[in-house]
Design a protein that fits this description.
Chain lengths: 190, 310, 417
């Protein structure tokens, strides 16, 4: 038996390396030595816990893939989760366009890539890119912290319910006292 | 109260620069007594009466003024109130942006400001006024209403525009003050020395934004609502008969924090930062959004910008 | 020294003069003292509770006090109406009575200072405005200018009056070289006090109603047409009650000059109204509030029209020689023009300048009882000062009461100039 020639070896090496080069592009540039927490906070953006309804998470406690099979037909839900009103482009969108059918503990992007609930802003930003751009620099949405130092972010969903995203109306705080009604304080220091 | 005895000079007498000649002290005490009478049942001390304009005080004098004030506040409110004298941070000029497409007129900023800045609750003083405008009229003050009180906001057909001190680069108020009690500090904040203001209210006539407010009566601030972290030129409790206004929460911003109104706004309509920092939020807004200045034809050159974020 | 010793005599004799008088005098002074007491009582209440006892609020932060102040600065400036013909045209009939105009100016200025004192929120800090002792923001602040020119004018008038009376008292001729320049100086000074006061308002871009180029000319015109009205009445009173001789032609000449200034005042007002109402910009709202009412608020409307109609009527009465030289119509005209300008300077200037406020809010301001009481007290102080000065000055001017009446001068004969 003849041993592989140098050229064959080189070709094999090239193929090996090449296949690595053609692998999936890295998602949202996770830093080297990726840990689970970093995937949950891409770009290093720290956010508060997502505002889940009581007891609803982790979804896999029910959606474990065994007791229930995923039903990917577009439909209006009755029974469980039927209380959720979806008014977020319902004509062109339904639950599994954001929620991942096979891993209910994560969401998915249009590419199919799964993202954690703590990174839901990436999902919102797919359509609302201008808002995401502004949000990243702190110009969209409420921020607390220091103008010259550490600031805190909120998730999109902290203010916008993803199922009915329109910002809710609030009861206004009291109106100012009209000047006619501003009088000497009775019983004050006289 | 006209027969009030002259106030004994309080503890600071030994160190004061008022001179130790007994005749001078007597004169000072006598005039202070008259002055106390003029303030009406006054608790005016000789030091307070003779205190000069803040800009003219030496470092030691400032310290003794602050010491005296902290003692007075402690006596009045029964809690430790700190009066800071934080100077402006070099290389900083504050800018403020307000998103008119996002303000819903909930007035949480108004009341957060009242709490943070120790404003009088009765008679009521509020540094921020939220105007309800007609969408069809745009920014038109003759169709503005600040006393709106519906069940919920925003109301159909209306948008909301909060107004507060614009911290102008060319403030008409500082120009007209006859005693120089108000000036524009190096970080752009227009401040008032509450112990120098004579209450003539010329600055109030001069301000095109209605940003300056007067203590018509004795301010009433319940002791349990006092914010003890204060600044001499900012939110320390004010006396009767002087003018006050928004200072961009000088007690917070000179320590790197956001103003209270920025932090409380639920819709994130308020943005704040250093105009000289090219990476700041405010610079991003100036660059990427379209801002306008309120009453810009008056050439006050405010550091407060309105924009439409959506 | 001659002067010093006799000055103390002058002072004590003046005191004697003002404390002795007839029943009418005592009644009048008593009435004024009562008013002063009422005003003082009201002011004490204001000191206790603060300016909240007025009805000024953030939206209308200047009111009755400043309105009166503005009007009285005009009255003080108008004293020179007498000076101009007397000294510039060397018109003898008025010369002797110029001093009365200057005394009116002093009383008016004292009232001005009084109104400023009661208007500021911290009267105990009044010393802050004194140059060198406090910190006067001059030349930036027009109020700083006002402080300087008003006090200088007061000092000037006080000096001239005291000097002239002192000379009359010591039976000496006044030194013309000293008096004449000062009196002539008082002409531009009087113009300056009212111009500076006008600039107080004029310089505020925030208040379009005041930010008009003709505000200062309007101030001067209305001052000159109303201030002398008090003098005209006063001169007639003095002619009847004392031996002071004032020629008819002096009074009619003053009235004639007033007629021209009234005409000019009406023209300027019309010019202002035309500019606002014809161009029809949003700045019109202030005129609308004043003349026609705005958004259901029409409190000022009757006063505004009363002021205009009184001013017109007075103008006609003063212009037509037949009514100008008739004592009844002349005096009616004086009252009318005084009322017209008083309304115009108070309600017609301050309130519409601040209503609607800078954010479009309408707060209907009306003076409270405290404000009226304090103002009455200050007016009473001014009247009292004027009365006392007259009580001493007239006998001295007439030569009825001088140093030699019951007293021997310590040295030296009358000096010849």
């Amino acid at each position: 038996m003849r041993f592989p020639t140098l050229s064959t070896l080189a070709a094999g090496l090239l193929i090996l390396l090449g296949s690595a080069a053609f692998a999936d592009p890295p998602a949202a540039k996770p830093p080297s030595g990726t840990k689970a927490e970093d995937l949950a906070a891409p770009e290093g953006i720290q956010v508060p816990k997502p505002p889940f309804s009581e007891g609803i998470f982790p979804c896999t406690s029910c959606h474990d893939g065994k007791s229930m099979k995923p039903d990917t037909r577009r439909r209006e839900l009755t029974g469980m989760h039927g209380d959720i009103t979806l008014s977020h482009g319902p004509a062109s969108r339904w639950c599994l366009d954001c929620h991942d059918a096979n891993n209910r503990d994560s969401l998915h992007l249009a590419s199919g890539e799964k993202i954690a609930f703590t990174a839901s802003y990436l999902l919102c930003g797919q359509c609302h890119g201008d808002k995401l751009r502004d949000w990243r620099v702190g110009v969209h949405g409420k921020r607390t912290g220091s103008w010259n130092g550490a600031k805190q972010y909120l998730l999109c969903v902290n203010c916008h319910n993803p199922h009915t995203p329109r910002f809710q109306a609030l009861k206004p705080m009291p109106a100012p006292t009209p000047p006619e009604q501003i009088q000497t304080r009775k019983g004050g220091a006289r | 109260m006209t027969d009030q005895k002259p106030m004994c000079p309080s503890e600071g007498c030994e160190t004061s620069t008022a001179g130790c000649g007994s005749r001078r002290e007597f004169l000072g005490a006598a005039t202070a007594a008259m002055a106390a009478a003029l303030t009406g049942c006054g608790t005016l001390s000789k030091e307070e009466f003779l205190q000069h304009n803040f800009k003219e005080l030496s470092k030691d004098e400032v310290l003794s003024v602050i010491d005296r004030l902290e003692k007075e506040y402690k006596a009045k409110y029964g809690k430790e109130v700190k009066v800071a004298n934080t100077p402006p941070i070099p290389g900083v000029i504050f800018g403020y942006a307000l998103d008119l497409s996002r303000c819903i007129g909930c007035r949480r900023c108004v009341h957060a400001c009242v709490k943070e800045n120790n404003q009088s609750r009765d008679p009521e003083v509020q540094w921020i006024r939220v105007l309800q405008m007609d969408k069809e009229e745009g920014v038109n003050l003759q169709h503005a209403d600040q006393y709106y009180n519906p069940e919920e906001v925003p109301q159909e057909g209306h948008f909301y525009m909060p107004v507060q001190c614009q911290q102008c680069k060319k403030p008409p108020c500082t120009k007209v003050c006859p005693v120089g009690a108000t000036w524009r500090d190096k970080d752009g904040i227009v401040v008032v020395d509450y112990n120098w203001c004579i209450g003539c209210r010329y600055c109030m006539a001069a301000c095109p934004y209605g940003a300056r407010h007067f203590n018509w009566g004795e301010p009433h601030l319940p002791a349990d609502e006092v914010n003890p972290k204060t600044h001499y030129l900012g939110n320390r409790p004010r006396p009767k008969g002087v003018v006050e206004k928004c200072t961009f929460c000088i007690q917070r911003t000179r320590n790197g924090l956001y103003p209270a109104c920025v932090e409380i706004c639920p819709t994130g309509s308020r943005k704040f930062g250093n105009l000289l920092d090219k990476d700041s939020e405010i610079r991003y807004i100036l660059e990427n959004k379209r801002v306008f200045k309120f009453k810009e034809d008056l050439n006050t050159q405010p550091n407060f910008f309105y924009f439409y974020g959506v | 020294m001659f002067t010093l010793r006799n000055f103390s005599g002058f002072f004590s004799d003046t005191l004697r003069l003002v404390t002795k008088g007839g029943l009418l005098y005592y009644a009048w002074v008593g009435f004024l003292l009562v008013l002063i007491a009422i005003g003082a009582g009201a002011y004490i209440g204001q000191l206790k509770d603060g300016l909240i006892v007025t009805r000024m609020r953030d939206q209308v932060s200047w009111g009755f006090y400043i309105g009166n102040f503005t009007f009285l600065v005009g009255v003080a400036a108008a004293a020179i109406m007498l000076v101009i013909p007397a000294y510039i045209y060397d018109w003898e009939p008025i010369k002797e009575i110029t001093i009365l105009g200057e005394m009116l100016a002093i009383s008016a200025l004292i009232m001005c200072l009084g109104f400023v004192m009661v208007d500021i929120g911290r009267p105990d800090r009044f010393w802050h405005i004194i140059p060198l002792v406090g910190r006067l923001n001059w030349p930036q602040s027009m109020l700083a200018w006002d402080v300087i020119v008003l006090n200088l004018y007061l000092l000037l008038n006080w000096f001239v009056v005291t000097y002239l009376l002192f000379c009359a008292y010591t039976e000496r001729h006044y030194v013309k070289k000293l008096v004449l320049p000062l009196v002539l100086l008082s002409i531009p000074m009087a113009v300056s006090i009212h111009t500076v006061t006008a600039y107080l308002y004029n310089g505020l871009a925030a208040r379009p109603f005041w930010n008009s180029a003709i505000l200062a000319p309007r101030f001067l015109a209305s001052a000159f047409c109303s201030g002398p009205a008090i003098l005209l009445i006063l001169l007639q009173v003095l002619r009847k009650t004392t031996k002071l001789t004032i020629k008819d032609e002096a009074i009619f000449k003053i009235a004639e000059l007033m007629a021209y200034t009234m005409g000019f005042n009406l023209f300027l007002t019309a010019a202002e109204a035309f500019k606002e109402l014809y161009s029809g910009t949003e700045h019109m709202v202030y005129f609308q509030y004043l003349l026609f009412g705005l958004r259901g608020h029409a409190t000022l409307v009757p006063y505004a029209w009363a002021s205009i109609l009184c001013g017109l009527a007075a103008f006609i009465l003063f212009l037509v020689p037949r009514t100008r030289t008739n004592w009844v119509t002349l005096n009616i005209g004086c009252v009318l023009i005084y009322a017209s300008v008083y309304i115009e300077k108070g309600m017609g200037l301050i309130i519409p300048g601040l209503t609607p406020d800078v954010l479009g809010d309408i707060y209907v301001y009306q003076p409270s009882f405290t404000e009226v009481a304090v103002a009455a007290g200050i007016f009473a102080i001014g009247f009292l000062v004027f009365t006392l000065m007259l009580k001493a000055a007239v006998p001295m001017m007439l030569g009825e009461f001088t140093i030699s009446k019951g007293r021997v001068p310590k040295e030296a004969p009358p000096q010849e100039i």
